[in-house]
Write a structure and sequence with these properties.
By secondary structure, this protein is of the alpha+beta class.
Length: 209
């Protein structure tokens, strides 16, 4: 069967774009993010996206299943499309907060990567992603095979962070995801602060590594 290019369409991810450049140095700042006052918000559904792709032999690892890196790229592509649509312009990947592989993906699987904005700060967004798989030639229910949470930063033409519209959760599920995203952000910032403190103590104690 001829390999098919990914297809991006709108749709409800039930969980949680154009490709974006990875910007590890553009992670969230350590101070509380007050959001974007004065900018009209956008509902979650405005940027919700599904990317679908059929897995071929070109996507496999040494075990014969689809390489995790292939799935991660699809996840980043779908999340990048969502971040760009919500922010109205370029957005770069700041971090992948979590990537969980639940089931192996196999050649001939039709993979659906469903993404939506869970939370927004002033210049950053958390995008939640669910990965589903079904056989390309069978009418069976798709199975969830993975999930991820990514943080994106919107940037202007000079690559500087720019303000994003606040996301407006529309359902109780959206509101739960917003609250859970806030918890993840709090944990990320606390972890970074704890690591900085540990390193500072080691330097103060004369321990160099």
């Amino acid at each position: 069967m001829t390999a098919q290019p990914p297809v991006v369409e709108s749709g409800d991810p039930g969980g949680h774009g154009s490709p974006t450049a990875t910007g590890a140095t553009r992670a969230e700042g350590g101070s509380p993010d007050p959001g974007a006052p004065g900018i009209p918000g956008k509902p979650t559904s405005a940027s919700r996206t599904t990317l679908s792709h059929i897995m071929t032999h070109n996507d496999t690892n040494l075990l014969g299943t689809v390489h995790g890196g292939v799935i991660m790229k699809l996840v980043d592509d779908a999340a990048g499309a969502v971040a760009g649509r919500h922010s109205g312009g370029p957005a770069v990947t700041a971090s992948m907060d979590e990537m969980v592989f639940l089931e192996p993906v196999r050649v001939g699987d039709l993979v659906h990567v469903k993404a939506q904005v869970n939370w927004t700060g002033r210049t950053s967004m958390e995008v939640g992603v669910r990965v589903l798989a079904e056989r390309w030639n069978e009418s069976t229910t798709a199975t969830q095979v993975g999930s991820a949470y990514l943080v994106f930063t919107a940037v202007d033409a000079d690559g500087k962070p720019r303000v994003v519209p606040p996301v407006e959760p529309e359902t109780e599920r959206d509101r739960r995801r917003y609250q859970e995203a806030q918890i993840r952000r709090t944990h990320r910032l606390a972890r970074r602060a704890a690591i900085r403190e540990l390193r500072a103590r080691r330097i103060a104690d004369g321990i160099l590594d």
